[in-house]
Amino acid sequence: MKKLPLYAIAHARSGDKGDGSNVGVLAYDDAGYEILREWLTPARVKQHFGGIVRGDVERFEMPNLKALNFLLHDSLGGSGSASLKTDAQGKTHAMALLRMEVEVPDDYEPPQIGTSGATAPGGEL
Amino acid sequence: MAADRVVRLANGQGFWGDSVDAPVRLIEEGPLDYLTLDYLAEVTMSIMQKLRRRDPSKGYATDFIDLIRRTLPTLREKRVKVVANAGGVNPEACRAVLLEVAREQNATGLKIGSVTGDDLMDRLDELVAAGAPLANLDDGRPFSEIRDRVLSANVYVGSFPVADALRRGADIVVTGRSTDPGLVLSPLIAEFGWGATDWNLLAAGTVAGHIVECGAQCTGGNFSRWWEVEGWDRLGYPVLEASPDGTFVVTKHDSTGGMVTPDTVGEQLVYEMGDPSGYITPDCVVDFTTIRLAEDGKDRVRVHGIEGRKATDSYKVSISYLEGYKAAGQLTISGPDAMAKAKVCADALWGRLAFAGVTFEDTVTEFVGANTCHGDIIDVPDNLAEVVLRVGVKDSDRAKVDRFGKEIAPLVTSGPPGVTGFAGGRPKATEVLGYWPALLDKRHVTTTVDVEEVG
């Protein structure tokens, strides 16, 4: 096995949902989706977020979009309008999850993604 | 009706405070049958209730009046109809002002409709007496806990009343708290004659509305691979080409920036998603695991396969109430040793308040630039060039929150060196709104549709 950052395998979006936030993670290909279904368990996601997620993590499967949806309960420090945090709506939680390292088989090669083949100018991705 | 008949809809406003030019450009830059606009959020509803209490002729989104004043000749010329939840807590007053604007512009024959019945603010005691529990949907707490602090209470009504107004010839329809996807579903019901039990079609129209309800978030905005997006300065807002069979294409006008691909649309599909197999609206229950996306040329995504189920017997009610007061302020601390000095500032601030006998129900201390957003997920570099100290408090006692606001500026002269960036005066206490979702049996709610023609 080897490790890859989640953003090599998937993209994501997050926002506020009920008492916390949700993160939808979309794999780029079928192999990536199978890896995510195996690796990206609610327990691992909760551990990754550390002190940010104080409640449970729930997971839902959307095979039609090669996607997993996570509900991160009690992750905003109060509900959206009542939170004192800068990110009161969990808008940055998707980017936080994409930083996670994922274990993949040695022979797995992430797909060529994107329209231009370019990488982010910031150099982190 | 021809099988290949297509209705073009665009959403030009994703939330209260979204781009003021986006809807104008959508009207001007391409073919369009309907423009939808979302102006409401919980915080907006409580502000509008406050405005209406002060003046019974207020309580709607005045931005929308400005937009119609600016675009009415073009809307008429291009025969674009408009559906907006700009009515806030006073859709009838909003319609009255729109009629005035139309008369000023001699828009004879223009029909303006409104839908009312969603506002429960004056009916709460009646509903409680009739046995509606209005308990908190998330945790079951009884409504009596917040009854005397309620600032707004609205039911998310379905899409058929707006469709009714459109069928009666309305060119502009204003509603109160309709659902965001319903702004798109209503015209499709009116155009294609979809029925109240056509669950798959109603689900399809709901998904179409969900995709465009946040404006540019499906056309390149907020996209994970942001570096692929071109034309940020003229980012296009979404356009839908909808067909009677419930399939539709998501696209944007050719002259605009941004991009529409299965990836940009897919990200928006999962936005603010709970259980994807049961997305509940007043009109139906949508199964998001049935949605199929297919590329259909440049900046075109075809969406099909959507299935839905029977609607539930309840409406969702959105109640806001006064939960207390909050304030937040910040200081910028330069290096060397920015982080160490910021921590001294924070400790001094909280220590001085405690010494003065002032404590709070909730506080926050953030070091912006040193990982406010992602906590311990990544390591913070040892030597930051500078850091922003952000502090905030929440309390039910307004005086304590105002007292907190007076303790930030003194740190510029009574803290470590290199502290600056205190601008804008002392932070003032603002209201904290609590959000209270509840369910209400549909038999308690009656909507009223009015359509009036400019003579």
Mean pLDDT of chain B: 95
Give the distance, in angstroms, between the N- and C-terminal Cα atoms of chain A: 21 Å
Integer-rounded radius of gyration of chain B: 25 Å
> Unreliable segments of chain B (pLDDT under 50, ≥5 consecutive)?
none
Order of helical and strand elements of chain A: EEEHHEEHE
Number of domains of chain B: 2
Biggest β-sheet: strands ordered side by side in the sheet of chain A: 2-3-5-4
Shape designation of chain B = globular
List the total number of helices of chain B.
12
Q: Which structural category fits the helices and strands of chain B?
A: alpha+beta
Give the termini distance of chain B in whole angstroms.
31 Å
Beta-strand share of residues of chain B: 15-25%
Give a quick account of the main beta sheet of chain A: strands, pairing sense, barrel closure: 4 strands, antiparallel
Mean pLDDT figure of chain A: 90
Describe it for me?
The complex is a heterodimer of chains A (125) and B (455). With 125 residues, chain A is of the alpha+beta class. Chain A contains 3 helices and 6 strands; from the N terminus they run E-E-E-H-H-E-E-H-E. Chain A is globular. The model of chain A has no long low-confidence stretch (mean pLDDT 90). With 455 residues, chain B is α+β, with helices and mostly antiparallel strands. Chain B has 2 domains: 7-118 and 156-312, no CATH class; 321-435, Alpha-Beta Plaits. In chain B, strand 7 and strand 8 (248-251) form a beta hairpin. In chain B, helix 3 (62-77) packs across helix 4 (91-104), helix 6 (160-167) packs across helix 7 and helix 7 packs across helix 8. Chain B is globular. The model of chain B has no long low-confidence stretch (mean pLDDT 95). The chains are: A alpha+beta (125), B alpha+beta (455). Chains A and B meet through strand 2, strand 3, strand 4, strand 5 and helix 3 of A and helix 9, strand 14, strand 15, strand 16 and strand 18 of B.
Observed structural traits:
heterodimer, A: 125 residues, alpha+beta, four-stranded antiparallel beta sheet, B: 455 residues, ten-stranded mixed beta sheet, six-stranded antiparallel beta sheet, 19 strands, 24% strand
